[in-house]
Amino acid sequence: MSSYVGAIDQGTTSSRFILFNRTGRIVAVAQREHAQICPKPGWVEHDASEIWRNVQEVVEIALERAGAKARHVEAVGITNQRETTVLWDAATGEPVANAIVWQDTRVNADLERLAADGGVDRFRAKTGLPLASYFSAPKLRWLLDHVPGARERAEAGELRAGTIDAWLAWNLTGGPDGGTHVTDVTNASRTQLMSLESLDWDDELLAAFGIPRALLPRIVSSSGGVGTVERPSALAGVPLAGILGDQQAALVGHTCFEPGSAKNTYGTGCFLLMNTGERPKPSSAGLITTVAYRFGDEPPAYALEGSVADAGSVVQWLRDNLGLIERSADIERLAASVDDNGGVYFVPAFSGLFAPHWNSGARGTIVGLTRYANAGHIARAALEAAAYQTAEVAEAMAKDAGLALAELRVDGGMTANDLLMQFQADMLGAPVSRSEVLEMTALGAAYAAGIAAGFWPDLESLAGHRRVDKRWAPSLSADERERRLAVWRKAVERSLDWA
Fold it and tell me: 490 CB contacts (<8 Å, ≥6 apart)?
């Protein structure tokens, strides 16, 4: 039987296990959703134990579907929702509380106090990140301060903490029975506790956020030996050889290894990353400077990133909260039932606005409503919002990097929507290309693990795997594009500082 590389893709709404062959094609996949827990406005939590159970289940199902055993899997990689933060008991493996999800905004008051000394960019020079509820450090601080006994137990060495990749790696390699506590540089760069220069936890940052160093995992490369899988038994003995945060994994999946190459992932949110080379590139336009990847002992690559909080989540909201559609896939048909947005603009700032605005007080706004507006116009405005927000980020990125966007490589569930992709090309004024493989985050994790295991010889060999499914060229004049973007900016202004 052929050999494969496996990828655990642990996302905001579900967990998947995917097997890839040597040409980067999917052989088998299994997926399970997990509960979205929202106990208060602005709070979003996950049950980390449920996520671990689901990961074990999808591993076994995908292997069964492929007719494969552990001996057929050369290596496994992890890709994950990044800033979501878990705190757990080292002896039992039980989380001490629900994980706090990246979308959660409960820490805003703490951040205001931190920003009182030095502003929101207090730590940007060292971390590449502004002070924002998005990142892990304030979430971990909240858990230590609000879970009874957590801080005392942490200082006594009884607890472990990390992002979802660290939680899964620890469990996969044995959990309470000798599990390896590690995270990779891409995930660590999203905590606001790691220096971009040293690629290690920074004492000044740990002190500012009140995080004991002993809680945190060891930082490793994105591609390299992490440990050996002990459980589930279906994967026992397989090397765990790659870890990448989901958006950096998509960058690797798209083989964006050259400075200036860029990708956008359309999932729960939108995440646009541009490779900027071997030195961190500071942003003056509201973007994040982050680690793109590190393979083995090679120098790391860095990226500029612009994050949009709500994209696919808006479609879910139209489906679940308003009942405008029965299935998420119905959004394109409803949006196409009208010729344009009818003057309706939808700013989906459900959890504030991320790049380039970084306004935690922004809230969702629908403007331009008249008696003429109908469900089709609202659906179209919801789709267009993803493209408008991406265009804002791309404009900021071009200013920071000094590079015009030649092409945007795209992935994620929303890229199946041709109406959205054409509108995206129109708003960028640049071509948009969709790969045949839509599961780019999983493919990037597989590439990281496969390179480490020798399944693929080098990064150059991966470029030949890229196969473009469809390409959209812009069809609007520059004047018309700018007119529409100007109205969008006007709508964004109405959403700012609402809370």
Answer: none
SS (H, E, C) 343-409: CCEEECCECEECCCCCECCCCCEEECCCCCCCHHHHHHHHHHHHHHHHHHHHHHHHHHHCCCCCCEE
CA angle 123/124/129 to nearest 5° reads 105
471 CB-near residues (< 8 Å, 6+ apart)? 431, 432, 433, 434
pLDDT (tens digit per residue) in 143-195: 999 999 999 999 999 999 999 999 999 999 999 999 999 999 999 999 999 99
Q: What is the number of other CB atoms lying within 10 angstroms of the CB of residue 475?
A: 11
**β-strand partners of 295:** 223
Coil, strand or helix at 89 = strand
**Distance (Å, whole) CA 275 – CA 291:** 9
Q: What is the pLDDT of residues 431-459, one digit of tens each?
A: 999 988 878 999 999 999 999 999 999 98
Q: In terms of DSSP bridges, do strands 408-411 and 365-367 run parallel, antiparallel, or are they unpaired? A: unpaired
Q: Checking DSSP bridges between strand 365-367 and strand 301-308, what pairing results, if any?
A: unpaired
Q: How far apart are CA 248 and CA 82, in angstroms?
A: 10
* Segment (H or E) for 251: helix 246-253
Q: Are 431 and 471 in contact (CB under 8 A)?
A: yes
Look up tokens 């900016």; give the residue. Answer: 489
Q: How far is CA 103 from CA 187, 278, 287, 348, in A?
A: 16, 30, 17, 13
d(CA 441, CA 453): 19
Q: What is the pTM of this model?
A: 0.88
Cα 226 from Cα 463, distance rounded (Å): 25
Query: Quick one: which H or E segment has residue 31?
Result: strand 26-33
Could you tell me what percentage of the chain is helix, strand and coil, using 3-state DSSP and rounding each to the nearest 5? Answer: 35, 25, 40
Give 273's contacts (C-beta < 8 A, 6+ positions apart): 247, 248, 250, 251, 256, 262, 263, 264, 290, 292, 303, 304, 305
